[in-house]
Specification:
heterotrimer, A mainly alpha (about 280), B mainly alpha (about 260), C alpha+beta (about 375), B: about 260 residues, mainly alpha, MetI-like fold, C: about 375 residues, Rossmann fold, OB fold (Dihydrolipoamide Acetyltransferase, E2P), six-stranded mixed beta sheet, five-stranded antiparallel beta sheet, 8 helices, 20 strands
Chain lengths: ~280, ~260, ~375
């Protein structure tokens, strides 16, 4: 064996334990989910998929999932972009401090946040109490679409902020300066220079948020109503309440395929996983 | 005129951004005063203050044991993830072997997969191989979800180490393992610590996979919180939420701090 | 260094070494032999294959074909850590988490040398590179020049037979670079180590080397002493890369010693071209410092002269550069020493550029 090749094998060995672990704990289980979805006692069968396509429940839940995922992506964009834009303008030191403000909720348990929203959005919750004093409400904001959207977009905003912020930071400041010297106002610079250049960041943030939103489970379950069942809940329902593993597997496969497709698009936008970028030497 | 337009735009952006960040921070903050409420009702602001809810957390059956289980699982998950993930990150960053890209995508794929899909797959798998050790089930399953985070953070750390430093060490006669131990590892310790802290947090807070793979008796803290939120919202949750929020905040600050001290050549 | 038989020892030999990455050939078949104690520089633009060649010697790239010998041993399949070489990098490659002392002690620890011996050898080598008081600093507390001295010390401390330097001064500013060139040269002379030095800076190569291997497009363009490369370039590339020069289109009119060469509209001149053929086309290379401006027709024997138009002068310190134009519009640079008197030559009348016949170089490739 050539020494260089031998050297590469020696490096690759470092990845072996993790690879074996993921093969055994992820690839085989996922493979058997796929297998389970296309087989029954008699052999290969697409019965589960046929049943799904004809099921009104599935179609309704799919529509709900897409609606909620798209809605949450939009809300996350409208909240996340201004934050990223604001942060990009701060000095590095201030940016670090502001980032902690975003990271703390980002790393806070979704159960804690759900609990807080239950307290805030409930019928006698903080928000309704406050609105009541202004002579408004009470409004129903919990166990319906509003609750789900608030909870999900809260969770997803940071995922939108990070890629956009990375993009904005990498924009050469000379561009905006050049535009300013040519007489463009701040808003025009934003509209004609900064924003168009940040679109790759926006697209990659939006795809990421959409993928995550598709798989949401806890937030719709705790903050949504009966109308807000998402595909994840359906997987759970078939698996742990009806014990129909074929159906739950089939839905999981559909969910997985959608996520992988979006992930593929994401990798196209980002031009490959960033940890693989190497210096040429 | 131009100046006026510029500063209005900037001020509007700042106002909106800060409002959005307050929205992000609010849920984490609101649980803190509530946890010191002396009332059995969940009201805000509390009428009076006491440590009563913390006392209930300690005394009510189940909460402490659930916390201890979560702690044990999180610690084992962290150890396992670091041991598997750091060497893998090294191979992905420094290696140039065929299939490197594919391998990276494979190891990182759990980030992109909905948790429910992983949860279902591992659940069915455990039933099939009849793995019955409850804690082991949780640790192995959590590890699938946390490993990509360790790989990403460690890889980012390794990338900041000039490859020529390792080459220099190799040429001076050190074996690859010796170089990894004496040069690479000390330099990526801050990244590894960050990865470990986040892994701990992810595992400690993990709910979806836990719901599927945990055995009936094995109630982790998130599982207990989840059922409390589904069935009857207990005010004890405020105390637990405060502790969890403080833990997250502490870890975020520690990580920011650790990466500040990162030796960047 | 000579062995008992009195013959010159060979430290490195490359035997038909090639390196391909896929369909890209980074290094075409190359032969090279380096004497023990020699200072050889690999010079060339980026992408010329010099770093590939260095990496092949270091063991960080295995040749696609051919063999590499170091000190009489075939090391083609030997991994870098077993080749016993020293290497200095442009980025210094000091371990940021270790002190200067620990950095220098690293190769000794790898060799399991006793603590006492390590302490002695580190302090000796710090003395050698003139940094005796910095042992307990961290690399980032040192200046660029100091860091490079540490990295040189680290590479000398275990007495490698062969030291490779990959653009070691590339990150330093001009003054410091010149100072370090002398320093490296001094160490080379004192320690009599064999060195392979990579640079893209022709001046550095000319200053330091015993021999230069000029590389271009993955091939050795010319190997020789700095003097050879400067005064006897074998190709237009070599003439252009090393030193300043003006190239004129030329065609051999009459073979002889010297030959008569036609420079088109600019006129004719005499050039020594061994083995010339009639009607052979090529370039006439003229070095600025061999040219003189004269105002009369009294051309000395053995000189060529062409009439030119004066355009401009640039004073660059010790020298002055006159820019003149030949009849056909080609610009020529004439370099003379600056004198305290008014040096500008704003000649209204006839002006000629002259050079000794043997200073002109005719190159057909």
């Amino acid at each position: 064996m050539r020494p260089e090749t031998r050297e590469q094998y020696r490096i690759a060995v470092f990845a072996l334990p993790a690879t074996l672990f993921m093969l055994v704990m992820m690839a085989i289980p996922l493979g058997s989910v796929v297998w389970q979805s296309i087989s029954d006692d008699t052999g290969l069968s697409l019965a589960a998929y046929a049943k799904i396509v004809q099921s009104n429940l599935f179609i309704r839940v799919t529509r709900t999932t897409l609606e909620i995922a798209l809605g949450a992506t939009l809300v996350a964009f409208f909240l996340g972009y201004p934050i990223a834009y604001f942060l990009a303008k701060q000095s590095t030191k201030r940016q670090t401090i502001w980032l902690i403000v975003i990271l703390i909720p980002f790393w806070t348990s979704s159960l804690v946040k759900s609990f807080a929203f239950v307290v805030m959005l409930g019928h006698a919750g903080i928000l309704n109490t406050f609105l009541g004093e202004l002579g408004l409400g009470p409004y129903k904001m919990l166990f319906n679409r509003i609750g789900v959207m608030v909870g999900m977009s809260h969770f997803l905003v940071p995922f939108m902020v990070f890629p956009i912020l990375t993009n904005l930071r990498s924009q050469p400041p000379e561009l905006a300066k050049a535009a300013a010297i040519m007489g463009a106002g701040k808003f025009r610079i934003f509209r004609t220079v900064t924003f168009p250049l940040s679109l790759p960041g926006v697209v990659s943030g939006a795809l990421l948020v959409f993928i995550l939103a598709l798989g949401f489970f806890i937030v719709p379950k705790l903050l949504g109503g009966r109308q807000d069942v998402m595909l994840s809940s359906l997987v759970d329902f078939y698996a742990r309440e009806v014990f129909d593993f074929q159906m739950s597997s089939a839905i999981a496969v559909i969910l997985m395929a959608t996520a992988l497709l979006a992930a593929f698009l994401l990798s196209k936008v980002r031009g490959g996983a960033s940890i693989l970028s190497k210096e040429s030497s | 005129m131009m100046e006026g337009q510029g500063s209005t735009w900037r001020r509007a952006n700042a106002a909106f951004a800060i409002a959005a960040m307050i929205f992000l921070l609010l849920p984490s903050l609101i649980v803190i005063p509530m946890s010191f409420s002396d009332s059995e009702l969940i009201i805000f602001p509390p009428k009076g203050y006491s440590f009563h809810l913390y006392q209930r957390y300690v005394e009510e059956p189940g909460w402490v044991s659930a916390s201890i289980l979560s702690l044990r699982v999180a610690i084992w998950t962290t150890i396992l993830s670091i041991c598997l993930g750091v060497p893998a990150a090294y191979a992905l960053v420094r290696g140039n072997f065929p299939g490197r890209r594919m391998l990276a995508m494979f190891l990182l794929s759990p980030i992109m997969l909905p948790s429910v899909v992983l949860a279902l797959a591992i659940y069915i798998y455990f039933v099939r191989i009849s793995l019955s050790h409850g804690e082991l089930r949780l640790v192995l399953a959590h590890c699938v979800a946390t490993l990509p985070f360790v790989v990403v953070t460690a890889a980012a750390g390794i990338q900041t180490v000039d490859a020529n430093i390792e080459r220099a060490a190799t040429i001076m006669g050190a074996s690859r393992l010796y170089v990894f131990r004496t040069v690479t590892l000390p330099l990526v310790i801050p990244s590894i610590v960050a990865g470990a802290l986040f892994t701990f947090l992810i595992s400690f807070d993990e709910i979806i996979i836990s719901i599927f793979v945990a055995k009936a008796g094995d109630t982790t803290l998130p599982i207990k919180m989840f059922s409390s939120l589904v069935f009857e919202v207990s005010p004890v949750l405020a105390a637990i939420s405060t502790m969890l929020t403080l833990m997250s905040a502490l870890i975020c600050i520690l990580v920011t701090f650790a990466q500040k001290g990162d030796a960047k050549p | 260094m000579t062995d008992s038989m009195g013959t010159v020892q060979e430290m490195v030999r490359l035997d038909a070494v090639t390196k391909r990455y896929g369909s890209f050939t980074a290094l075409h078949e190359t032969e090279l032999s380096i004497r023990a104690g020699e200072f050889l520089t690999l010079l060339g633009p980026s992408g010329s294959g010099k770093t590939t060649l260095l990496n092949a010697v270091a063991g960080m790239a295995t040749p696609t074909s051919g063999r590499i010998w170091i000190d009489g041993r075939d090391v083609t399949a030997t991994p870098p850590e077993k080749r016993g070489l020293g290497m200095v990098f442009q980025s210094y490659a000091l371990m940021p988490h270790m002190t200067v002392f620990d950095n220098i002690a690293y190769p000794l620890k790898v060799r399991k040398i006793s603590k006492q011996e390590i302490r002695k050898r580190v302090s000796d080598v710090l003395e050698l590179v003139r940094l005796p008081d910095l042992a307990h600093r961290k690399p980032k507390e040192l200046s660029g020049g100091q860091q490079q001295r540490v990295s040189i010390a680290r590479c000398l401390v275990y007495n490698p037979r062969l030291v490779l330097m990959d653009e070691p001064l590339g990150a330093l500013d001009k003054k410091l670079r010149e100072q370090m060139q002398l320093e490296i040269k001094r160490l080379h002379n004192e320690l009599k180590i064999t060195m392979i030095y990579v640079t893209h800076d022709q001046e550095e190569a000319l200053n330091m080397s015993d021999r230069i291997m000029l590389m271009n497009g993955g091939k050795a363009e010319q190997i020789g002493s700095p003097h050879d490369l400067y005064f006897r370039p074998v190709s237009q590339f070599a003439a252009d890369f090393i030193g300043q020069s003006t190239m004129l289109d030329a065609k051999i009119l009459e073979v002889g010693d010297p030959c008569i060469v036609d420079l088109g509209a600019s006129g004719q001149c005499k050039v020594k071209v061994p083995g010339a053929n009639k009607d052979q086309g090529g370039k006439l290379v003229l070095r600025p410092e061999t040219l003189r401006l004269i105002t009369n027709d009294q051309i000395a024997d053995g000189f060529n002269a062409l009439s030119v138009r004066y355009k401009d002068s640039l004073v660059t310190g010790s020298t002055i550069k006159h820019i003149v134009e030949l009849e056909n519009g080609t610009e020529l640079i004439v370099q003379e020493l600056t004198t305290p008197e008014e040096t500008a030559k704003r000649h209204e009348g006839r002006l000629l550029v002259a050079w000794p016949v043997e200073a002109g170089i005719f190159l057909d490739r």
